[in-house]
Amino acid sequence: MKLNTRKERPLMQNKQPSSSAQQVSSLRYDLSEIRINKTVSELIHMGHDVRDKVPFEKLAQFKQVNRDVVSGIEHVESKLISELLPLRHKRLAASPFSFFRGTDELMAYDLSNQESSNIPVVISGDAHIGNFGFYASPERKLLFDLNDFDESTIGAWDWDIRRLLVSVILAGEQLGLSHDKISSIEKAAVETYQEILSQCFDDHSALERYYFSTEVESFLKAEADGNSLPKLWEKIKNSAVSRDSEKVVKKFTTIDTQGHLVFRENPPKTVHVSKKRYGQIVDHLQKYLQTVSPDVAVLFSQFHISDIVRHSVGVGSFGTRCYLVLLTAIDGSHLVLQIKEALQTRRFQGFDVTTKYSQNGPDNGERIITCQQVLQRASDPFLGFYHNEDTGRSFYVRQFWDMKESVNLEKMDEEDFANYAKICALLLARGHAQSPTAGIIHGYIGKKKKLANSLVTWSNDYAKQVHKDYQLFKEAFDTGKLAREEANA
Q1: In the predicted model, is pLDDT for residue 220 greater than 70?
Q2: Is residue 136 part of a domain?
Q3: CA–CA separation, 478 and 463 (whole Å)
């Protein structure tokens, strides 16, 4: 599909980058907390010492935290686009699991008040079971890995595993699984995390940990070797490989009255930006180009910008400033970029959720892509970021879709769900193992079943708290305290 001839805005302009664009590349997210000059043996012994100070039994104790759920949500939403809030609330109200997915800042505050070993690694910050999925490597191989990093940062390893376990409970309840079965799945997930972390440091070199493959074909081969994978895997794999930019064009665009290819509107989810915003985004993409590799910048020199819309996605991020940019190449092919607002991590009203590893200086867009590149085996080559000095807002950029696909948890049977939870725990351990400090975690957690029992006990108690919070939210939503006007999906 090709555009009619018209004057388009080139993505890469033939001019020197502005001083502000040059400044972008000088920003650095500080990773010094995970760099440690110790041998693996020394790290393991450090973990033993931490366990003496923070035994597993302490991890099992859920400490009740007083906070106002509704006012906290309202504070978060004060930074979001107001016309999207009714639809955001509708998504949060869909189920306790949906509510949990969309209120990560609430659990972050609660976790900051719990007992923790406080061993730092690069964490996802939002490692719930729905935040793993398929995507394409630069070599066009289909990978499966963590795929959401808005809350990623340097933090305590157990924040990720606890969020994974609570999500297993809530998703398992949605599937109608028994309490005993869910607890069994949780324990298996923790034991998988322990086993993989042990393999990473006992059996693999630093390079082998780095080169670990998350390619789907490798996972499918593992099934033939006796390791069970979800039965939905092959079907999703076939669906994912067809999700490229040209399919985005077919699904999301139309020809306007002047014969131009443009995005199709679907208010309030998808709307065209104003002329002023269009120009701002075009200018900001010049800053973005300073953060990508030279080969990607050369590739972009062949494209011009054809259209831009605000396009909202997700649950927790629904209402943030997200955009789609349609690019057309000199040969008539297309590429669609997604620009997502990068909010500060931990943003709950009146509650300090900073930790000893929190940083104030770095750009949030840079934080997100830095952590993503550490945690994922391979990442989108188009990842980049920019900062809007006028508004103080940060953004990161990536390719839209491009073989991205998620597992529909609601279509899983009990066996699929149990296997899927273990795969997520495996990938979480592999991601954490990229931080040298994960050797301390290995020494701390060992292979003892006491760890699983403690974390499962805590997670089961916290899941009850989520249900209480969800009911408080639902009451505010049902009574109209929170916006609930009907909106198009």
Answers
A1: no
A2: yes
A3: 22
- Outline where 148-293 has alpha helix (H): 157-174, 179-202, 206-211, 216-224, 233-240, 245-252, 275-288
pLDDT confidence bin for 286, thresholds 50/70/90? very high
Total residues found in the chain within this entry? 489
Record the tokens describing residue 22, joined without a space.
């040059």
| Coil/strand/helix, residue 154 | strand
- Tokens at 123, concatenated: 């964490």
Domain span including residue 38: 9-478
- Split into its structural domains, the chain has a count of 1
pLDDT value at 458 more than 90: yes
Output the six-digit token pair for 154.
């340097």
> Which pair of structure tokens corresponds to residue 92?
């949060």
- Between these two residues, 139 and 37, which has the higher pLDDT value? 37
Asked if residue 78 is part of any domain, the answer here is yes
- The angle, 0 to 180 degrees and rounded to 10, between the axes of the packed helices 449-478 and 69-77 is 80
Residues 417, 185 contacting (CB under 8 angstroms): yes
What is the rounded distance in angstroms from the CA atom of residue 305 to the CA atom of residue 303? 7
Predicted confidence at residue 227, as pLDDT, reads 59
Residue 430 has pLDDT above 60, yes or no: yes
How far out from the chain centre does Cα 260 lie? Answer: 34
Over residues 30-64, the pLDDT tens digits come to 899 999 889 999 999 999 999 999 999 999 999 99
CA distance 78 to 97: 23
Residue 155 lies in a domain: yes
Q: How far are the Cα atoms of 84, 169, 314, 407, 484 from residue 87, in angstroms, in the given order?
A: 6, 25, 11, 23, 7
pLDDT at residue 281, as a whole number: 95
Closest CA to 341 of 296, 386, 276, 293: 386
* CA distance linking residue 382 with residue 379, whole number of Å: 9
Give domain status of residue 486, yes or no: no
